[in-house]
Amino acid sequence: MTYRSLSLALAGGIFTLIATVPASAEMGVSVYGGFQTAPHSDIEVSDGPDFRAGWEGKSFQTPPYYGVRGTWWMTNLSKPNLGLSVDFTHAKVYANSETLASSGWSHFEFSDGINLLTLNALYRMRIEGTKFVPYVGAGAGINVPHVEVTRGSGRTFEYQLGGATVQAQAGVAYDFNENWSAFVEYKGNYSWVDVDIDSGASLKTNILTNAVNVGVSYRF
Question: Which pick of 14, 81, 122, 142 has the fewest CB atoms within 10 Å?
């Protein structure tokens, strides 16, 4: 199975879950932002020399890094500490000036997002007598990058299905009341990106994004 076919299967599973979540479950909606980075990654180009890209996250530059998450806690199944989430993250990376100089490309980034959509399993650990709720999670999904490449006279500027993504996270929430909470977390995503660029060529790279997120949640 290719990364693209796996990605389509994962996307189908995510939307099936959304359609079948019981209405009586404890639901939560979260929004978050934060500081996101990415280490260097190797770039494979089908019609040219491979090279190594240095990435900048530029988390607070427009369009900013952000995410939206929907969570179903299994209180109706007598497993209140187990949950499932659907998580969308607008992560992004920009090739640094050294990368552009060494590759000869004039523009290379996924700045309108690597755009990660994942289905995750969560486990929360309430601390008795406090309002703090640590949690961990892991999952998988798809990446949909906005591919921005300019090399010579060729230009690519479009959204594409890049491939699969895996995710891990750990954080702590603080419950203000039964409906509202705030949280801080680490979230990491490893994405296999396989996209088309100009002249019928392809580009492949594996991107690891690391983020420290701060957000708020509403439960109902």
Answer: 81
